[in-house]
């Protein structure tokens, strides 16, 4: 038997609402109402009998047909730089779970954080019939989101924002402030920051929080302690090597994310630096591996589940006030073993 024979046989064997209604002796609309998981579950005798008959006959709700009747597919496209980045993988998993709770399904495309790849990824997802997009790839200066809006494509930004679109983010300035304030409270004054890429508002917000904490404490920022980086382990290692080559080394490093912190730690260890005895390090995001490092990393925890829930809420909302267009979720400082009081 070929595949067409199988599919024809499956189509003939598919149990419909009509089949369940005929067996139960009720109308099709009654069966539809009793089996709709989005409605409050009825415990009436009729509802119980309908569910028992549906189970016995092997009825399965045709989600795609129901979505088409509503004018939607129930699919949401998610665009992230890469899934090899633990932060993006955690965000996508959180989005997938939040979508499932809302009766939606997510599919993902990656861009490797290349500017024009956003458009290609979006087109690929839209051709597959997604109802809209959640993007974790917003870049400063890009007009891509304006193109989406002009085409009437529903979209929400996550983790990064552009200041005008609907967005669910962490409060990055608060997180950068908490990380730097923690080091200041431990007595550190020469605190370096590994800045991350300038096109990402998440990185810029954390650097702004660093400057806020330093200014509030009356501490000047040495220009050579503000070191450019990306979000990668390699850039963290290179930035730490730059800091170690300075005539006056910092006593602490705030890395813009956990990957750059891990890279910095690798360089410090290779150079025989004791962490936190000689230098303290703080990361950002609290990815799972950092608590399992030989010296567990002090970091700032980002509540990805809350960001995902806020993104889905914005995506599903029919009307959003101007004051609610950007939802920022508060992060939490997680002190561990890579930070200690400065020894004078």
Automatic annotation (TrEMBL):
Residues 15-70 form the HTH lacI-type domain. Pfam families: LacI, Peripla_BP_3. Keywords: DNA-binding, Transcription, Transcription regulation. The keyword Transcription applies. GO terms for molecular function: DNA-binding transcription factor activity; transcription cis-regulatory region binding. This is LacI family DNA-binding transcriptional regulator. Signal peptide: none annotated. It comes from Paracoccus aestuarii.
């Amino acid at each position: 038997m070929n595949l067409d024979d199988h599919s024809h046989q499956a189509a003939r064997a598919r149990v419909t609402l009509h089949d369940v209604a005929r067996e139960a002796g009720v109308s099709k609309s009654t069966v539809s109402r009793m089996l709709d998981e989005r409605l409050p579950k009825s415990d009436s005798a009729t509802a119980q009998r309908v569910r028992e008959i549906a189970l016995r006959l092997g009825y399965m709700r045709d989600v795609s047909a129901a979505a088409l009747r509503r004018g939607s597919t129930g699919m949401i496209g998610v665009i992230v730089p890469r899934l090899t980045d633990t932060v993006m993988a955690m965000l996508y998993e959180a989005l997938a779970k939040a979508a499932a709770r809302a009766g939606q399904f997510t599919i993902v495309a990656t861009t490797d954080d290349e500017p024009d790849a956003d458009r290609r990824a979006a087109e690929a997802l839209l051709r597959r019939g997604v109802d809209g997009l959640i993007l974790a790839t917003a870049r400063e200066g890009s007009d891509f989101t304006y193109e989406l809006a002009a085409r009437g494509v529903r979209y929400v930004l996550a983790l990064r924002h552009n200041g005008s679109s609907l967005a669910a983010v962490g409060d990055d300035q608060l997180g950068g402030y908490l990380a730097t304030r923690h080091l200041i409270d431990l007595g550190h004054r020469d605190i370096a920051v590994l800045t991350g890429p300038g096109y990402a508002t998440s990185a810029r917000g954390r650097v702004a929080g660093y400057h806020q904490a330093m200014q509030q404490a009356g501490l000047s920022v040495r220009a050579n302690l503000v070191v450019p980086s990306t979000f990668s382990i390699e850039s963290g290692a290179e930035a730490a090597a730059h800091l170690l080559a300075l005539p006056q080394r910092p006593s602490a490093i705030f890395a813009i994310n956990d990957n750059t912190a891990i890279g910095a730690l690798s360089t410090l260890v290779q150079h025989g630096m004791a962490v936190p005895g000689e230098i303290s390090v703080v990361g950002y995001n609290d990815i799972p591996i950092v608590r399992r490092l030989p010296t567990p990393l002090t970091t700032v925890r980002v509540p990805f589940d809350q960001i995902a829930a806020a993104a889905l809420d914005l995506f599903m909302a029919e009307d959003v006030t101007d004051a609610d267009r950007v939802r920022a979720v508060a992060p939490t400082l997680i002190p561990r073993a890579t930070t200690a009081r400065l020894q004078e």
